[in-house]
Automatic annotation (TrEMBL):
Belongs to the APS1/VSP family. This is Acid phosphatase 1. InterPro entries: Acid_phosphat_B-like (IPR005519), Acid_phosphatase_pln (IPR010028), APS1/VSP (IPR014403), HAD-like_sf (IPR036412), HAD_sf (IPR023214). One of its GO terms (molecular function) is acid phosphatase activity. The gene is APS1.
Amino acid sequence: MFPKTKAMSTRAQKRGKESSSSGDGDAISFCLSWRLAVEANNVVAWPRVPTQCSRYVETYMINGQYDKDLELIVEEILAYVNQTFLLGDAMDAWILDVDDTCISNIYYYKGKKYGCDPYDPFAFRTWAMKGGCPAIPSVLRLFTTLIDKGFKVFLLTGRDEETLGQVTKNNLHNQGFIGYERLILRSAVYKGKSAMKYKSEVRRQLEEEGYRIWGNVGDQWSDIQGDNLGNRTFKLPNPMYFVP
């Protein structure tokens, strides 16, 4: 995980305050528009969820709509997967992000008002060290399908290799993510680089090894932007935080 950028657009902040003061209906309408803009990557560099959207994001995340959105996207991914034909040389690859793609941090963010509190790297690292992140069921189903079909699945995460390497591996294993080709964490070589730059360089290295990247899945735009993206990219919803 990486620190969020320092400022959300002044215009978005102003509109949110105006909506909040106008009544619950206007606030919900603003939050719906805000989340759409966030998922479309039109609102960027936001440091936290607007305060008045805490209840909206909570409802979205835990009352079923988030799970339904994930299921729809995974069905689209699987439709694409079922149209692919592997060459049989064990070089057909898929890339999956880890945090809030394979495993969920929803219990951590519940204590952070679903992203309304500022990002706290120490608190998140403490949470991650517990190794208790649950699998996201629809993505676990996708993962299992990819493995069964014969893809080499690479799990690519911004988590620090030195401090979170083993606990992340154990967490994934305990949640059913077994049989992937490689878990790639941020090593000292990539310290200080943006998520997009870091992940682009890793994908480039994989392609230089001869892998064909058929698909790339993440909950952040920085997971699926940059270079060497592969044949298709898929963005999962996440209105709780932004990773540059």
